[in-house]
Amino acid sequence: MKVLTVEKLVPGGYGLARTEEGAALIKGALPGEVVRGKPVRRKGTLFLEEVEVLNPRPD
């Protein structure tokens, strides 16, 4: 499991966070949220699955 901070939104409804392995896409995540999930690589793209929001987006 990885804990990441979402930096921005990207097309397709994904939040983008950076890891040591490169950028990770998190479905439905919002900028500023801290999330934990399982990293999965599909066709060269890193996704975070089984996501839990640890710290919601600050308002």
Explain what you see.
The protein has 59 residues and is mostly beta strands. The protein has a 6-stranded mixed beta sheet with strand order 1-5-6-4-3-2, with no helix packed on it. The termini are far apart. It is globular and about 35 Å long. The protein has a single domain (2-54), classed as OB fold (Dihydrolipoamide Acetyltransferase, E2P). The chain has no helices and 6 strands. Strand 2 (8-10) and strand 3 form a beta hairpin. It has strands at residues 2-5, 8-10, 14-19, 22-27, 34-42, 45-55. Keywords: Methyltransferase, Transferase. GO terms for molecular function: methyltransferase activity. This is RNA methyltransferase.
- The radius of gyration over CA amounts to 10 Å
Total count of strands: 6
The tally of helices reads 0
Domain tally: 1
Cα(first) to Cα(last) distance is 26 Å
Proportion of helical residues: under 10%
How much strand content do the residues show? over 45%
**What CATH first level would be assigned?**
Mainly Beta
**H/E element order:** EEEEEE
The CATH level-2 architecture is identified as Beta Barrel
Largest sheet, strands/sense/barrel? 6 strands, mixed
CATH superfamily: Nucleic acid-binding proteins
Strand order of the largest sheet: 1-5-6-4-3-2
* Shape category: globular
* Helix/strand class: mainly beta
CATH topology: OB fold (Dihydrolipoamide Acetyltransferase, E2P)
Quote the average pLDDT: 94
Low-confidence stretches: none
